[in-house]
């Protein structure tokens, strides 16, 4: 599967809110220009550009291709409830994102690598698909070998100060549990999902 391999900090400075793309320590050190700062010779953003940037935030934060995001939009559109909210719930319940939110990986690309290398078990079975959709009452554990534990232990130690979202829990033996579907306020990305839905409603 293709994925973005270009400069990450360049994307973060342009789009601002991409905490899943780089390690938290490096992300905190980034200096952003104030939102209301006046930049000479820069025109006011057009509505299309605003919608496009919101769409790009979702793409680069969760590490999706354009085709994958369009597929999630179709699934969310056929589901009950707000399309934008369902879209964020689908993306937040991906296995690679769950590992990132639990602190088992320092970035979403790092979580994807853990899954691809078969270090992660869901309900006692190895899962090597990063897009696997986790469900309430799923139990996420680490493969029983020293290498897997070392990778996860280092990441959890570095993210110990970060607040865990309410829909997840993690025990001392590095066992994560999904308690429920994530609520909108717990989403880890600052995004206006309605602009993303509007962008695709004009494109598809």
TrEMBL record:
Gene3D superfamilies, per database record: Ribosomal Protein S4 Delta 41, Chain A, domain 1, RNA-binding S4 domain
Keyword flag Cytoplasm: no
Signal peptide (UniProt feature, chain positions): none
InterPro entries: Ribosomal_uS4, Ribosomal_uS4_bac-type, Ribosomal_uS4_CS, Ribosomal_uS4_N, S4_RNA-bd, S4_RNA-bd_sf
Transmembrane annotation, as ranges: none
Gene Ontology biological process terms from the UniProt entry: ribosomal small subunit biogenesis; translation
Domain annotation RNA-binding S4: ranges: 93-153
Quaternary state and interactors: Part of the 30S ribosomal subunit. Contacts protein S5. The interaction surface between S4 and S5 is involved in control of translational fidelity.
Any one GO CC term of the record: chloroplast
Keywords: Chloroplast, Plastid, Ribonucleoprotein, Ribosomal protein, RNA-binding, rRNA-binding
Record-annotated Small ribosomal subunit protein uS4 N-terminal domain positions: 3-92
Source superkingdom: Eukaryota
Residue ranges the record marks as coiled coil: none
One MF term in the entry's GO annotations: structural constituent of ribosome
Biological function: One of the primary rRNA binding proteins, it binds directly to 16S rRNA where it nucleates assembly of the body of the 30S subunit.
Main location: plastid
Pfam families given in the database record: Ribosomal_S4, S4
Subcellular location: Plastid, Chloroplast
Protein name per its UniProtKB record: Small ribosomal subunit protein uS4c
UniProt gene name: rps4
Protein family according to the UniProt entry: Belongs to the universal ribosomal protein uS4 family.
